[in-house]
Amino acid sequence: MSTEADATAVSMCRRLSRSLMPLLLGMLLFVLYIATQAVLKCQATTESRGSLGIRKLSGIPGNGVIRNLGGISENEVIQEHAENAASKPLKAFLVILIPTGPKYVWRRNTLRETWFKLADDNVLQRFVIGMKSLDKDAQEQLIQENKEHGDLVFLWDFNDSYGGLAAKVLLTFKWLDENVDFKYVLKTDDDTFVRTDRLQKELKERNVQSKLFWGFFSGKSPVYREGIYEEKDWFLCDTYLPYAFGGGYILSTDLAHFIASNAHWLKPYKSEDVSMGAWLSPLDVLRVHDPRFNSEHESRGCMDEYLINHKVYDEGMKAQYKQVIETGRLCPKEVLKRRSYIYNWDVPPSQCCNRTWGII
């Protein structure tokens, strides 16, 4: 009788152990999972407060990458950005950067005598010059020019040339990011008339705090294979990626910060505007196409609505400034030389830009 009872008990124990084993194993795995997640969270918090979290991604409030790292709130990012801004020597609502050649003092003086005067104290205007290849006399002349006007930025380790313009823009944005607390930056040329008064007013009215890329865009420009614009290294597409023409385009501070922080990863192509379009192409950017930016390499004419008017030289610059001061309008005589277009963002880039008359 005892032997039969013992056998029954052993059988029941075996059945019980078989039924409990999966449960015990599941509990063990669950404990291991909780412990692993705790370790990973601790590591992520440590990393996010180091070079990966704050230094690489600061200045982009609310960035999902920062939040996913753990341990960093949006307020902390904004506070860190504010602390960095407080340490910068210059501050402006709008910064205007103008890459220029060392010898073009007459162009710089024309801008100083005309539309530079339209800006108030919230606008910072700077010419940018590469100094490396210049002899001592040329450098001294530029230093003296800067003592007189205080509006030159010297890139001491850069050789000025058209082929190096994209690299120059990268270095310029690095200078900007390190030295100026700003909201927006306009990159333009020394043969462009800028309505700084109207631009500043409209930027305040738009109040787009981030991701702004504002200019006159092209999405189907053919790749140059010869001439001064020749691109030997372009292989991304059979046309250029959508970009804003270099006569003038505006970026918000976060995009400028992205360019400066990642300059060592970004490939400079022959044209700086094409390069900027490629650099920003994968980002979640608000691209604003505006026909009031007459910023192409060939002028469309002169219309009073223009905020940016490219390919304007000495006497034309002075005539337009006189018109603005006396009448508030830009053009001594309005004229349209070429057709314009409204960019269609709902179709492939090859179909984006159909020119027609009736658009400024």
Automatic annotation (TrEMBL):
Q: Which InterPro entries match?
A: Glyco_trans_31 (IPR002659)
Q: How does it sit in the membrane?
A: Single-pass type II membrane protein
Cofactor(s) recorded in Swiss-Prot or TrEMBL: Mn(2+)
Signal sequence region: none
Which pathway, metabolic or otherwise, does it act in? Glycan metabolism; chondroitin sulfate biosynthesis; Glycan metabolism; heparan sulfate biosynthesis
Keyword list, A-Z: Glycoprotein, Glycosyltransferase, Golgi apparatus, Manganese, Membrane, Signal-anchor, Transferase, Transmembrane, Transmembrane helix
Membrane-spanning regions, if any? Answer: 20-40
Q: Where in the cell is it found?
A: Golgi apparatus membrane
Q: Name one GO molecular function term.
A: galactosylxylosylprotein 3-beta-galactosyltransferase activity
Q: Which reaction does it catalyse?
A: 3-O-(beta-D-galactosyl-(1->4)-beta-D-xylosyl)-L-seryl-[protein] + UDP-alpha-D-galactose = 3-O-(beta-D-galactosyl-(1->3)-beta-D-galactosyl-(1->4)-beta-D-xylosyl)-L-seryl-[protein] + UDP + H(+)
Q: What does this protein do?
A: Beta-1,3-galactosyltransferase that transfers galactose from UDP-galactose to substrates with a terminal beta-linked galactose residue. Has a preference for galactose-beta-1,4-xylose that is found in the linker region of glycosaminoglycans, such as heparan sulfate and chondroitin sulfate. Has no activity towards substrates with terminal glucosamine or galactosamine residues.
Protein's UniProt name:
Hexosyltransferase
Task: State which gene encodes it.
Answer: LOC118410806
